């Protein structure tokens, strides 16, 4: 049996969906997440701290928080419209897996570009580039950046990764880099023969 949670509407005439952008991911301790989900119209400090990130833009796109609970795969998407409670919200079964899949795809692109473009095994990617090219808002303190960093750290191509204020500094294992300078190739071959 496949079990999940869903919000079912009685005699729904349609399923209106809105375009949304996750501006920040907030992960709550398990008990706090359950408390929030039990009454989402309560004022919550984590919403109050992030009201400036949430709005509906001139194109009708909702800019939201994604709230996750520790140990939980579901989440709640929130646009508070300047209030301290979840004025607009949507329950998202599998939210954690959704975000992980999107960030894994982004990591694939970063790794591919870096390993194919570096001539010496080092590469940097900046958060504004990620926003512009992939439409993913990444920063050191929006939850997306820390999740992406963990994914990149686990990649076999990655020898080192250093988070910066505005991006990631990366060092790849040279075996994965296809366009090394001749001097880098010779140095790598010499190290392998030692």
Summarize the structure.
With 194 residues, the chain is α+β, with helices and mostly antiparallel strands. The protein is built from six helices and eight strands, in the order βααββββαβααββα. The protein has two domains: 20-93, no CATH class; 97-193, Ribosomal Protein S8, Chain: A, domain 1.
CATH class designation of the largest domain = Alpha Beta
In the predicted model, the low-confidence regions spanning at least 5 consecutive residues are none
The percentage of residues in β strands lies in 15-25%
Instruction: Work out the helix count.
Output: 6
Whole-number average pLDDT? 91
Task: Please provide the ordered H/E string of secondary-structure elements.
Answer: EHHEEEEHEHHEEH
**Strand count:** 8
Shape: elongated
What number of domains?
Answer: 2
Give the C-alpha Rg.
21 Å
| CATH architectural group of the largest domain | 2-Layer Sandwich
Question: What is the percent of helical residues?
Answer: 25-40%
């Amino acid at each position: 049996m496949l079990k999940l949670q869903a919000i079912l509407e009685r005699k729904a005439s349609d399923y209106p969906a809105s375009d949304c952008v996750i501006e920040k991911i907030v992960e709550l301790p398990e008990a706090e997440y359950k408390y929030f989900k039990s009454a989402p119209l309560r004022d919550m400090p984590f919403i109050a701290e992030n009201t400036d990130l949430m709005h509906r833009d001139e194109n009708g796109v909702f800019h939201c928080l994604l709230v996750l609970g520790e140990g939980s795969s579901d989440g709640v998407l929130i646009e508070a419209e300047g209030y301290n409670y979840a004025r607009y919200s949507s329950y998202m079964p599998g939210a954690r897996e959704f975000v992980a899949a999107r960030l894994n795809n982004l990591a694939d692109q970063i790794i591919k570009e870096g390993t194919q473009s570096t001539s010496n095994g080092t590469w940097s990617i900046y958060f504004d580039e990620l926003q512009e090219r992939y439409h993913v808002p990444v920063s050191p303190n929006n939850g997306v950046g820390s999740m992406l960093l963990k994914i990149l750290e686990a990649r076999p191509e990655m020898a080192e990764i250093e988070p910066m204020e505005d991006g990631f500094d990366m060092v790849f294992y040279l075996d994965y880099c296809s366009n090394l300078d001749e001097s880098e190739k010779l140095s790598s071959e010499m190290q392998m023969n030692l």
